[in-house]
Amino acid sequence: METVIRLCALCLTGALLAVLLKRTNPDIALLLALAVCGAALLLLAEPLGQVRDLFTQLLDWGGLPTDLFLPLVKTVGIALVSRTGSDLCRDAGESAMASLVETAGAVTAIMVSLPLFQAAWDMLRGLL
Description:
Blueprint: H1 2-24, H2 26-43, H3 45-62, H4 66-91, H5 95-112, H6 114-127
Helix pairs in contact: 1-2, 4-5
């Protein structure tokens, strides 16, 4: 709960400062947005570590192969990174680059999830 409050305060402060800076110095406003995103990631480091530990425990408990579980986690990470990257590009006024970042995220997510598709296909072939 405290992390969310800190994160919201950081982002709201950064957004207000960016709005004020956009009028006179849009380049600095974009750098401020990047700095706020970096600081937000630092705030999320501990909770993300706890999520990683939980996933590790679930893998050990459930006996799932890492090869099948890891693509799911990677796909979620790719989605978060590509969304943040595309939003930053849009804030900079580069909608074409934002679309490219989204497309690259989708292609990368598909590439990462290929082992899942292969495992599902092998299972279906085994049933036939």
